[in-house]
Amino acid sequence: MSALDLIKSNLNVAKTLILDGRDRYIGVTRTALNIEQIYRNYRTRAKVLSSSEAEKLLRQAHRDSAEQICALCRDNGAIWVKFAQFLSCRPDLLPLEYISALQRLQNDAAPARFEDIHPIILANWGQDWDKQFSRFDVLPIATASVAQVHRATLLDGREVAIKFQLPTARSLFEQDSLVFTTLAKALRPLIREFDIKQVIQQLIAMTLEELDFRREAVNLKTFRTQTHLPGIIMPELFESLSSERVMVTSWVEGVRLSEYLSQHPERAKPLLQRLLASYLQQITQLGIYHADPHPGNFLITADEQIAILDYGAIAHLSPEQRLQYTNLLMGLMGFSTVKLGDLFKQAGFRCERPETLEEISDYVVGDNLEGLSIADRLSDSLDKLRKNKVIMPDSFVAMARVIITIGGFMTHYDVDFEFDPASVAA
């Protein structure tokens, strides 16, 4: 892109923000000012408080700020809710008070009209697109932040799920990225309790990847080639019908995990323990894992197989990382003969004070976390590492987020998080 094109592009985005998104972003400014005032008040009052009282006040500031952000995301919807859901699984980046508040947000995006997605259909399949189907449901069966899914039947009788990118997804992403980046710059010197710039950069990078369905198609194909545990399935890709903005897979008939467990609570233990075993296998043995374990991404079929959906986020671990994180998991539960501090160092954790990792390790393997599951130990450890400004490998953070999320399911349904060292043997 030339310098002139870049200037034009920036001007167009600015025009869109000012003219088209005025009401949408007035709320952003108001929320930013409110959050800044919350933390300013905390710092003023904390100067005359004891350390324990100041800590309580900080936690209240986190809770008040988190509620402000939740309200903003609900009002703006779409990608904002997606960002909030991503943040709700990142205890390494945000205080736990934010995590609790953001987990309550659900995505109820409004679907696009069929006439709005029809140009996408014509661009991908041509004027005679309907001749490929014996049935095509014009009303979507599900809508998320960047896409909606339609059900159809091919001429050979196979049922398919067709995911279309929402027509406004990319333009809204460009607007929101600019706003988030500007917001991060403005708040960074004011909110020193966590690195807001790092948070925003990761959010933007993740969403940008998910806007290209070709990446998701490759992820699905790669994931399907692995040898998974019995009872774990994934849809088949129809590559010839898929593109950057359209993805077609086989239709999986089933009930969403949360709905199924509400109807059959007695089945929570075997299903969730199988899901946990699958993710441990993906991380410690396969070195490739589904990195977005949102409850809506799991279906339970009539014969109780677990279907994993949505492959916008797949993570890869090198053989070295796989071994390091397997050892760390075992070390966190006290099954390793190597000191946990040494395992942290071997895995690439860094901090200004070398003794910090040893101090955190002593806390983790001592009596403080006795009786906690691996998910709870990871969550507590991430909180300690973040507070002590330890630089953590991104790959470890992503892996920990997945296990913590699965652990959250199990806690919600009162299922023991069993950890068998033999199940993660490399």
Question: How large is the count of helical segments?
Answer: 16
Mean pLDDT across residues: 83
Spatial separation of the terminal alpha carbons: 47 Å
Please outline the major beta sheet.
5 strands, antiparallel
Write the layout of secondary structure elements.
Layout: H1 3-20, H2 22-46, H3 51-76, H4 79-87, H5 96-102, H6 114-125, E1 133-136, E2 142-143, E3 147-154, E4 159-165, H7 169-187, H8 196-210, H9 213-224, E5 232-233, E6 246-250, E7 255-256, H10 257-263, H11 268-286, E8 288-290, E9 298-300, E10 306-308, E11 314-316, H12 319-332, H13 340-346, H14 355-365, H15 374-387, H16 394-412
Parallel strand pairs: 5-10
Antiparallel strand pairs: 1-3, 2-3, 3-4, 4-6, 7-9, 8-11, 9-10
Description:
With 426 residues, the chain is of the alpha+beta class. It folds into three domains: 3-107 and 169-206, no CATH class; 114-168 and 211-249, Phosphorylase Kinase, domain 1 (2-Layer Sandwich); 255-426, no CATH class. It is 55% helix and 10% strand. It has 16 helices and eleven strands. Strands 1, 2, 3, 4 and 6 form a five-stranded antiparallel sheet that branches. Strand 3 and strand 4 (159-165) form a beta hairpin. Helix 11 runs antiparallel to helix 16. It is globular, with a radius of gyration of 23 Å. The protein starts with a helix and ends in a 14-residue tail after the last helix.
